[in-house]
Automatic annotation (TrEMBL):
<protein>
    <submittedName>
        <fullName>Uncharacterized protein</fullName>
    </submittedName>
</protein>
Amino acid sequence: MTTVDRPLPELPAEEHEHFELDPATTIDRARATNPVIQGLFTGLLGTQTSPWLIVVVRFEDDPRPVHIPGVDPLAHHRKLFTATGAGTMNMVRYFRDMSHGKLNTGGSVVVGPFTIGYDRAAYVGNSAPGPGQIDRGGVLAAGRAAATAHQIDLSSYAGIVVCGYELLDLCGWVGGMAALCDSHSLVPSLLGQEMGHGYGLDHSRVDTSTEDYQDPWDTMSTANAYSASDPDYGSIGPGLNAWNMRMRGWLNEGRVVRIDPMQPAHREIELGPLHDAGPAAAAIDVGEYLIEFRMADRWDAGIPRSAVLVHRAEANRSYLMAGSDGSHDLVAGARFEHQQFFGPSFTATVESIDEATRRARIRIDQTVRRPRVPQAGVQWPPPISDPGPVEIVDPRVAQLQELVGRYRQALAVSDRYGAPQLLLRALGELAEEVGRQAADTEVTTFHEGYSFEPKSVIAEPAPG
């Protein structure tokens, strides 16, 4: 359950992996692509076909698998990793749910078991190998070589999992689309993290700490996470948090409610469970935080209670935030506060959680404090409750400013994560408001240009 701290072995030039993206778009050599760029393409082009090759291997001195006519010794592997396990909580469903339907690993294939040319005693794990020894990277390379020797085209797959038929190891390469596992770790609660590393995900943390595995509500803290029992695979969950989904381009940005950081706000917002499909809002984007609702079922069946979570992100890692009372899972009546001297400050209050309707209601109260300069008749320094100078703005201008703010946020999201539908909607709203105001304005042409006068204030000519 650790990431590999040495570089991924170089591949021969002919062993190029690729991603197929609908519609009919292929990005060759995606393994060399930055995971953020992969996420961007995922968001822009919809469903990403991302099959994995699962190569089952054994050491030379391991017991040979017993062949029983009519019995597939890798049946469990196929059920777990491929479309064969449709209807179960397998890895295909995991990546579909964690990507809001953008990632399809259903074309994954299981092959083997193949024998690699080392005895078990030669394996040194994450230590530096000596003469005649093999480490994690060596086993990965051996698994690739074994597949190639059996006429398997590695370029047909986005990633590779080398799985020990007996005990081997458990790890993943961040951004490398590669992982190791074995017969003892064939469970989604573990593989979600290791295969997630392949897509660029790193271990999650709690705010104010630099220790990994500290967010038990997130897949990327599997060593210390709330997993649930499962009749098919033993252990599943928890799911990914909203920031980890966003950093991979998997969060449906059209279902994110954004609070303009430049304007005061008082809003009640209803959230559905983060990993559910459907039209309900999946997250609230306020300040640098994403607020999400997690139901204690399905992938999150192991969490203590249905609750609202708040995360921020920094340097490819998500950080779990604590509420005002110190708890990390917020229930009805709990609050999360973000206060700063200048700029936006907000309080997020959980108004209610209704498990029957699968909804949580969150109230956002945001103030924006603007700098004030010393002036006669005004207390200096100003009290913390002083919002700063108040700008009186024509309501028509204020409406355009709000829509421009939404468009600015949509541009930033589209440029970084890929959400063209959100960008087009924001632009359409802005164009609609411009058209509405133009319809209420009379244009008079004269020599040097145009004079705009609202119809409502144009005086009638005096009687002759």
